[in-house]
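User: Last request for today: this protein with flavin-adenine dinucleotide, please.
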Amino acid sequence: MARDRKAAAKEAGINFIHLPFNAAAPDPMLVDNFLKAVTDPRNQPAFIHCASANRAAALWMIKRVERQVQFWFTPRGGTDPNRVGQFPIFIWEMAGGRQFYGLPARTGDEVKVAFVRGGPSCTPDTIDRTVRPAEVAAIADVLGQRIPSMSGTFLRASTCMYTNTADEHFVIANHPERQNVVVACGFSGHGFKFVPVVAEILADLAIDGVTRHPIDLFNPARFR
Ligand SMILES: Cc1cc2nc3c(=O)[nH]c(=O)nc-3n(C[C@H](O)[C@H](O)[C@H](O)COP(=O)(O)OP(=O)(O)OC[C@H]3O[C@@H](n4cnc5c(N)ncnc54)[C@H](O)[C@@H]3O)c2cc1C
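Assistant: Here's the final one, the structure of the complex with flavin-adenine dinucleotide:
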């Protein structure tokens, strides 16, 4: 009973939040409340529990969208040394695991850089589209320290969203209850480069129900 659990949690000094949830007909408002509760630093670390584990796993997976910011700079070292063919696409993992990545100038006089993940949770309705000077300063600082010739004049920034899974691996599977539905989502910010093989897997699953590609890693049952 939720009442007993609440009393036990209170006794243990744990903040208890009860969210009755019908996994067959999820209520979007409840999903938002869940997201709000687990992303509130005052509730962390969070222990998510339900009797079947299906609902906890469904909620854990359902919305893990985070805000990302991309930045464009005119490199102070000039565009030519930072052009495609002269300078690589890179991802740099720094101490503590934080990563940033960059793309050389393709056309025009601008390079693109961004941090990888670490953004606040959001939804398409709640994402903050305003990029703050402090955010520009943070990436300019990292770029200036690591690749000074690529840093320079800040031109502009834009926001986008990553749809993350808990382990940052994809979800690709036949729907467990509707075999005529194939699910591919949660690409966690690194799905684009896999588009050709993901398309092949989806075609295999849709037409034959199986694929020769090893997709166990992407089975959503791993979150149970
Ligand atoms: C800023 C940013 C940088 C990234 N960088 C990289 C990278 O360097 N390398 C990499 O591999 N991946 C990268 N990614 C991730 C990659 O872009 C995604 O993993 C990939 O695009 C996900 O593919 P998708 O088909 O699942 O979704 P999407 O590409 O989002 O496609 C979904 C499509 O469905 C359409 N749609 C949505 N709702 C409806 C509806 N109701 N009816 C009809 N159509 C609808 C949308 O308009 C969209 O065209 C990046 C993502 C972002 C946001």
